[in-house]
Prior knowledge:
With 352 residues, the protein is α/β, with parallel strands linked by helices. It has helices spanning 35-44, 49-55, 59-71, 111-119, 136-147, 159-162, 202-207, 220-226, 264-271, and strands at residues 4-7, 11-15, 19-24, 29-34, 75-78, 100-104, 124-129, 152-158, 173-179, 194-197, 236-239, 244-246, 256-257, 306-309, 312-314, 321-322, 327-328, 343-345, 348-350. The strands form six sheets. Strands 10-9-8-7-6-11-12-13 form an eight-stranded mixed beta sheet. A three-stranded antiparallel beta sheet has the order 2-3-4. A two-stranded antiparallel ribbon has the order 1-5. Strand 14 (306-309) and strand 15 (312-314) form a beta hairpin. Helix 4 packs parallel to helix 5 (136-147). The relative contact order is 0.12. Iron/sulfur cluster (SF4) binds at residues 211, 284, 289-290, 293, 295-296, 299, 301, 319, 321, 323.
Amino acid sequence: MEKYFNLHKDCLLIDGCKNSIIHDSSRQIYKLVSIEVSRLIKKGMTTSIEKLKSESESSLQVISILNELTHEGYGLISNSKSPNISGIKKNETNLAHVSNAVIFLNPLVTSDFIFYLSNLKCESVLFIIDDGVSASNFNTIYTSVDKSTITSVQLMVNKNSLANLSIDLYSKLTHLTVFSSNMAYIDLASFTYYFLESKATLAELIENNKKSTFMFSINRRLINEAQFCNPYFVNKLYVDKDGNIRNSSELVKVFGNIKNINSSKELLSIISQEEFENYWFVHKGLIDVCKVCEYRLMCVDNRVPQQRSEHEWFFTSECNYNPFIAKWEGEEDYKSLNELKINSDEYGFSMP
Ligand code: SF4
């Protein structure tokens, strides 16, 4: 009986221009493979292993690649052809609601506002607590968070405000970043959540758009969403230090102010404005350079895309990963797009 190689149903193969990636959403891991291996996997969908071997210059290499993928749990050998290269399907994102919010803590933020967010099924909130804000107010706000549907809380705190917080009581806290910090010693053992101390200022942290594989997450929801949405902007709500409601800190357009919001319905009507969703559907597949990057379904990117034409977008700044040579900035032989004379701007995309 003929044998076929199939990718596991939770795995999705994504090609870049130089490398490919197998996303495994059930184990939340990925494997980088060459374009040649990617071609072999795709061919294996309809071609028996015997035929793959006979058509290859090195049947031993074919066996070795397929065995490796099988042993590592990305694929399996079976008696049938693969009906579909991936069991991961696009599904609907709940676009009517806020799934994540970033709140610059200020006196206008009340427990009621947290309640409105919770009613819109907000799942995670990042609170920014800077100098000049009574951090002890946050303890009151957190009591509302604790009773809400919000499941995860992140904090970015100025080191001066840290002492006023009751960190150990925040059971939903998942990430804590202390900015502008010169603290020499922190008892990390007392922190059960992800803790980061940074000498960077708040502005530097917010504006930072450096990517790294360490920041990528592999999960079914992100993979689904990234195929047709921009995961950074979609379902996001940002409240700035004056209480203004914006889609994100990178976008200046103001849609209202929380001091005028008296119900979840009013909040919903603000985020349902068409312009609020301007960047929600600008997915990586529409943007120069990122569209050929193998990391595009796991990369959450805070750069604001610029539109060139109906289906063409570009960025005005470069990413620190160059997918055309599959190199990260700092790696040996890395070259920027600029050095390679790859151009992407309002006039078009071109490469030598
Ligand atoms: S090139 Fe685009 S998709 Fe790739 S890592 Fe950079 S920002 Fe992410």
